[in-house]
Amino acid sequence: NLNGGNREGAIALLEKAVKLNANNAYALTILANRVDFLNPTRSLALRKQAMALDPNSIIALNNYAANLIYLGKHEEAVSLFERIKIIQPESQFGYLGLARVNVLRGQLADALVQFERAVQLSPKDGLLKFEVSKLHFSLGLTEQAKDTISDIFFAPYRHVYEENLEQHLIEAQQVFPRTEQDSYGNFLRALAEFSNANYNDSARYFKLATGYCDYCIVRLFSYIEADEAYGLEQLELKKQRFQNAVIQGEAYYLGRHNEAELLEIALLEKDADRAIQYYEQLVNKKQPIDVEILYFKPYQFLRDHPEWPRLIKRHKAIMAEEREKYLSLTAPSAVF
Question: What pTM does this model have?
Fold first, then answer.
């Protein structure tokens, strides 16, 4: 059911498993992951229950800590990530969690050092490498950004960092999808089509990329442009999920500042004025502006806004400061 994108069917089966055995920590954890968007409060309770049943489970600790991040309980989350490092020093999860908390705090240099340690511990994790490469790029470390993804399935994306969207698309078309059921491959093909504003093609491939990034801005933007009625319906669902999370106390929806979700909604509604306001707030919190916003063709309307050059100038200055901190932290003479 999960592989087929049937969230409701999966939840029903997991509910049955938990009912049959309330001490099944694994089932509790997976159920918590599935109800995340629908009921964040229950998700936290399930994860706490799983952690109590298996207090040394890296998965249970990591998932509970992630829930704490969503609720803004960062200090408590940090203590759990530090505990993971003690229990299993070779696990990437402790470093990865600390990195993500530091990103939210605007401590990007510290975050990048921890991200890179996580990559060392999990060198085959393509999604992790992609996340880290984007932070490399944000801090002006473009060559490192390209190197980080050069040996994984995200490799065609290195051309985005060069602002060469046409070559990004050419390579993606040559490689993806790798098989008919290649969900990630379909997503990456869709992303490349979207970067060049080929909305019909991007929407088609996004619909084949089931169970991944279901409410991402690139997916919904494509749907709205290719099939307005369906796209707007998905946008309303995105809004409802966010509103439900906020009502239940989430201050960092999906592990990001809530302004990031409001920004995406503004962009999907083509409201550049509102989007600029949210970006002002995010830049003031030292949050990176994603490379896709900087270069992808569909976002040109935002880059045409008269306030954009001023915003970018401030953003570049903040990122340059963090880059210098990072270079200092990683210099051969640095002591940890």
Answer: 0.90
